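Researcher: Structure prediction, please.
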Amino acid sequence: MKPAPKTIEQIPVIVISGFLGSGKTTLLNQLLNHLPKTAVIINEFGTTPIDQQLLKKQGMPVATIVGGCLCCQTHDALMPMLKNLRMAWEANAEKPFDCVIIETSGVANPEPVLDILLRQRWLSARYRLEGVIATVSATMNADTLARFPQIQAQLAWADTVGITHTDLADISQIEALTATLKHLAPTATKINAVQGVVLPSLLLAFPQKNRYTPEHNPAELTAHRFKSISLQLEQPIAWQRLKTVLTDLLETHSQQLVRLKGVVYTLEHTEPLIVQGANGRLYPPAVLAARESGDMIGRLVFIMDGDIAHLTEELMARLRA
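Model: Predicted structure follows.
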């Protein structure tokens, strides 16, 4: 008889993103007070690691990637860092940390980080993406949002949005941000985080349906009710066809397909589109300004309650039809 596959214990990972000055580090410190056994990976755009100094008092493993952003350095820096961190964890019988938090640079797009956690097989078998948190300042104006598409991407991929600086914003600014979040992050949980401060229990209350347990090799992973499939589209695709297929999938599998999100490139648009869906509904797409670091690869993530047989094959077959 073939022996049962060995269960691999997964380490939960939380990704924190947010534009420059939006309160990421303050929020991170709040989380670390609540999660004392945490390893932290910080990406700073400058060459001097300031944030690491702010976290030293916490007395936990901290690694820093400096001089660029994770969207450019993902494979060269983040992948070996995560592998080394995991091997050190396995070699230590006392298990020095229970989870990992990755804080991206304020100018970083979180997509490449999610690619690694969801698609790199060795890592996705040993780490579990728990959720994505984005911070956004209520004082941010429309010009800043339009000028920096990274902000739009950070909000689009977020499971939870921490809204900071509401004490400094006027009513019109808060109303404008509320409308923006309704458009860019319709499925995300919104939390008021004055000056970046919020109860950690609120930030960590990710709905089960937002947890990304990869579908591949399910017998080798810790059993979880919700599973995810990450799909890349190497070429631009006709939006009307993709819209029809995704709408049908969400309606047909409304009980199992609990969430869809992604960024896609289409034949009809010169800029990428943010795609979001939940509860059997495909939300209107939002245009994401073209990014210098964009690789022209579309990305879709499907989160399922249980299994949907041959979802990827069904999707690709219908797109080719």
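Model: The first strand starts at residue 11 and ends at 18.
Researcher: Thanks, that helps.
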